[in-house]
Amino acid sequence: MFRQSPPKTIDELMRRCQQIAGKSLGQIAQELSCAVPADLMRNKGWVGQLLEACLGADAGNQAEPDFISLGIELKTLPLNANGEPKESTYVCTVSTGEYEALSWDNSWVKRKLSHVLWIPIEADSSIPLAERYIGSGWLWQPDPSEENLLKAD
């Protein structure tokens, strides 16, 4: 699979998001010379990996936001036929051994949720995977009250 170089600025990242909005997953896969799986049953992370490659995410499996130099985490938002979130969104795990030693301020989850690029994806199971469309991405940062809720959780 072809992978874009990391964006140098937030503006560049958002331009890339605008360029893929309205395209299907199949179109993006074709542009990246990537095969589209028949379904997501055995390929759960495929959509996120496709968008990471297309947008130039560079963190891989590191405990860092997906766009390391920008401090931005990429999250797909699968939407049902009514335009509502279809499922919860995975952020990260914390082992029980680490839990007691961690504080919110130095946690991996805080680093990941401090600045998030949300990209909605059509996820109605009646639509073949390659024909599902990508929506317009947006950036989100928690305000102080949202951060307090996250911290308390």
Describe the structure.
By secondary structure, the protein is of the alpha+beta class. Helices cover 31% and strands 11% of the residues. Strands 1-2-3 form a three-stranded mixed β-sheet. The chain starts with 9 loop residues before the first helix and ends with a helix.
The parts where pLDDT drops under 50 for at least 5 residues are none
Content of β-strand = 5-15%
How many extended strands? Answer: 3
Sheet having the most strands: 3 strands, mixed
Q: Could you give the order of strands across the largest sheet? A: 1-2-3
Sheet/helix structural class: alpha+beta
- Give the helix level as a range of percent: 25-40%
Distance between the termini: 37 Å
SSE run:
HHHEHHEEH
Average pLDDT reading: 88
Structure described in brief:
By secondary structure, this protein is of the alpha+beta class. 31% of the residues lie in helices and 11% in strands. It starts with 9 loop residues before the first helix and ends with a helix.
